User: What shape does this take?
Amino acid sequence: MTWVGAPVARTQDRRMLLGRGKFTGDLARTGTLHAAFVRSPFAAATFGPIDTSPALARPGVTAAFTAADLGDPALLAVLERPEFVPTALPLLAIGQVRHVGEPVAVVLAEDPYLAEDAIELVDVDWSPQPVVASLDAATAPAAPTVHDHAPGNCLVDLTMFDDEKLDGIFAAAPALITATLSSGRLAAMPMEGRACLAEWDDRDQQVVMHVSTQVPHQVRSAVAQAFGFAEQQVRVIAPDVGGGFGLKCVAGREEVTLAGIALRLRRPVRWVEDRQENLTASFHGHEQRYRVRAAFSQDGQILGLAADIECDVGAYSAFPFTCAVEPLMAATELPGIYKVPAYRARGRAIATHKAPTAPYRGVSRPQVVLVMERIMEKAAAQLGLDPLAVRRRNMIGPGEFPYTSCNGITYDEGSYTESLDLAEKRITEAGWPGERDRLRATGRLAGIGYSCFSERTAYGTPTMSQRRMRMTPGYDTAAVRMDPSGGVIVTTGTCGHGQGHETTFAQIVADRLGVHPAQVRLRQGDTDLASYGWGTWGSRSIVIGGGAARRAADSVAAQLRQVAAHLLEASPADIQLNDGLAGVRGDESAAVPVSELARIVHFQAHRLPEGLRYALEARESFDPPGTFSNACHAALVAIDPGTGEIRLRRYLVVEDCGVVINPVIVDGQVRGGVTQGVAAALLEQVRYEPDGQPVSATLMDYLAPTAAEICPVEIVHLETPSAFSETGAKGMGEGGTIGAPAAVLNAINDALAGAGSQACIEHIPVRPWDICAAIPAGSTG
Amino acid sequence: MKPAPFSYYRTRSVPETVALLADLGLADHGLAEHGLAGHGDGAKILAGGQSLVPMMNFRLARPAALVDVTRIPGLEYLRAGPDGLRIGALTRHRTVELCHDPAVLDGFGVLSRAARWIGHYPIRARGTFGGSIAHADPAAEWCLLAVLLDANVVLTGPDGQRTVPAQEFFEGFYTTAAQPDEMITEVHFPRPAKYAALTEFAQRQGDFAVVAAAVTADLEDAGTTAREVRVVLGGVGPLPFVVNTAGLSGQPATAATWRAAGGLAAAQIDPPADGHGSAAYRKKLAATLVERALTEATRSP
Amino acid sequence: MKDLHLIRLRVNGREHELAVESRRTLADMLRHDLGYTGTHLGCEHGICGACTVLVDGVPARACLMFGVQADGQEVATVEGLADGEDLSDLQQAFSDRHGLQCGFCTPGFLMLAEGYLAEQEAQGADAAELSEQQIREVVAANLCRCTGYQGIVEAVLETARRRTAERP
Assistant: This one.
């Protein structure tokens, strides 16, 4: 029996379905104090001394802290590059605020209601300052600055791959495509907001923090660095985490603040973010603008590409990734699956008086795919060619892998053309073109859009080090040990929060040890239990964490084989571990249960030679360069010309994430990812007024999609195993989100073209009024 | 997002409620000493709570006292009779939606059909007819239909009942003619509307309408000519907007007339702009939705 | 001075008596005063539905009700769905159809669906006639950020059909 590839039911489902999940906000401690943060009502302001005494006078209010009370702690995320301007993120603002919602003080009370009452009574003497709340405002001549030491509000300015032949190529190009594309600011919006319970543990002389996080070790490092603690003075535990999507792969100032307070008060303190805070005062992402030029030959071959990329990163660099994560990713990865002979990109991070940004699902790839897929469509339209033919002409094709591109990236084996071919075949067979025609015949607009891409997943330090982060992530470490009854404990530094790692890691390890996955328990999300690790983000966990676990399991398996060989008087090379038995190849009568081997190793060590005793435990790390998943998405949309309403009618994903560990979980990740990508294309946007006031502070205004806005997603798998992955698997947590915006936008533009509109929409989200403005007058449906 | 403090009262009858409201209007609620006095909000009636409580959780509404009327018996009903349809104030939206009574559906079916536009099923299962009217959101379905169908809002106060025509009842955004010591006990729809429809648009299912259109068409017996067309719009201003449709009387009951009605409606409004749509977009929606509502109304009596 | 009220209610069939401040939401009371932490808070303004419970059999956003309002009423939460350790048919369908990932929204969807299925049964509706689109419209009452809803829709539809088929 091989467990990898099987649709094993998820072990975590049961407790969630029974209502027995344990999320941070569910944890109770006697004497807990509840934190509420006093937050800035202004996008930019200076302020004088803060008077917390009226709040402290309220019954039930125990304490209040300002930055000064805590020693002005801050988090500093650094990129060791001259083009990077560091911006310390104060846990509580120090004399100056740079976005609405920035915390300036914290109040602790006996219940959260009293805490909210109390923060209304804290007196802050504000002096509002000029605001820049958009890319245009922040980059205008003589614009007010967000940080005095960053004139022009530019925090990162990198020009990469500057090919000197490019200007000549553009000058001589038979066809030139120019476009400006932009994407709206998004909130990751996990259903559980951020949360923290911090308490002092006298026995261990530690601050113990339960945090809703994707990165327990980095939260620990953040606390240590902000307060000058030794890392061992802090233990961070991620209990059940209600989604993250990148929002929780950075350290939040609130949870770090609570660690300092728990230490001072020696009482448990809890903060549970509310939705208004989550939408206005946490982290956003994806607000970008691309000005691109691409040169093409008459027959549709891309000759050169230049891009000027601006990312509105908000007020600060998030810890530990910095605000460079979006522009760096964008400038590096833009060419993607297409063979671009000459390339230049300038990537900038622009500071504005808005909430800071974190690496939200996809990180710049939804945008770069949007840009490239629109360029392919526009080139085809300009040259009178079939857009799929233009894509095929330029794609890295079979036989060309591994392919090293103009961006210096080597793309491992993928199925770029195969996935497009298969997608085209499937939608033709499924009758999409006919459905589009029928919709058009009934007075609606209808269009089909494609999106072809690959995404680098599971990048370890060989790749991450190119960013030059002071804290460079990427490797992960797993320990595997077998107990006397044959049960297996796996520890990992990755930190699943809904991805079903308990199940998938168990599948990987079970296969190596020849046991049932139910005998394998994953321990994750605890800095005192696991080796230093980098958590779960960047589609890394199953490849890197799972790879490390597989390596460690292989070490334990080798030990088991040796013990079995000793007992069965066979050669270790002939021992097979399968279905709970250690058997001798070719001799069905000779076998011993794996659990018996475990019992003997632990309880009868004296029966074994010295070298086989005290075993069944191993620790291994994995640190790959990264591996590229790929996919082709296709969308069919119908548009009501009377209202501009855009309805998703059909959606297809042909995806290749290498070896599929668990098809049910992979499909779930794809569907959830597509939903977020469709939402980015059609519904969601964090909006600010020019004065920096957020106007999407509720779920009535931030339009996360419901089931009614989404259609079923058909998924087809291709499997091109990765040579850079222990399991052959490639990361796949982000692909759905990456591919969907381009497919939807291309479908919308196909629909507009089908209605005779000359307009092209080159931004997301596309709103109904954009449609109404783009279609010929008089269409009402 | 926790509400500010308030005092809670539960009443068992309408007279008890209005007497309590009168008392509370005079009372010092003892919150001033905490520095937490509401911003001019006195006592509020708590019915389904689906509109009021979110505002309280955001602390945008800070009533000093809530009077829970949901246990008052006898205020949940739909009664159709010779003088029209009477809906008890505590009737849930879902009850209207699922109503199978032919006496109600014949002539007032538009209410049942329109109910599905109100929020989502759990919201409809708790929210009340009277609560929605009292909340007076100018895009709310019941408010539009009350104005469209010349409903009367029955208010009970310490001095007894009075009846206010819906058009006079709504005074502005969330503002009505109800006195602080009055409660809505019933909404009375005096005459049936054979050809009526409500339609609306929001980007996401269940959200507040960006624009909503409620219409009736009174057709000549042969059904070929419009005797009178009435159109009320929501989401285009602080009140349900009554479109001047005089020009449509006597027009043929055809698609062209309904399209013209849409244009007429769009031309008369000066809608607001916000993140859910510009003024121009709302005008476009108004034109489309009026046309569609009239088409629907005259297609399925 | 807190405005406290002594109330009695039943939760999943169990009697509770407690003093609760008038402003305390039903969700906070269930979670923190009575220990039913399976009811989650996702937005506290009635949009996400994670806190959906049944009050006298009817779904309610527990963030839009005050605990004191549940005085004398019967509240059903996710903790009461299973028969001991055995998952209910609906819970099992959610697992079978991969209707959950992080699990935070799951209790709200389960209670929403239970309320809907019970109402349909009371109406004598035939689930064989239920369309996927109808279920989508019901499920649209709540937000999930992980699954894309497909597994949730399938689980509810499957359960509706099974219950209709098994109805005496």
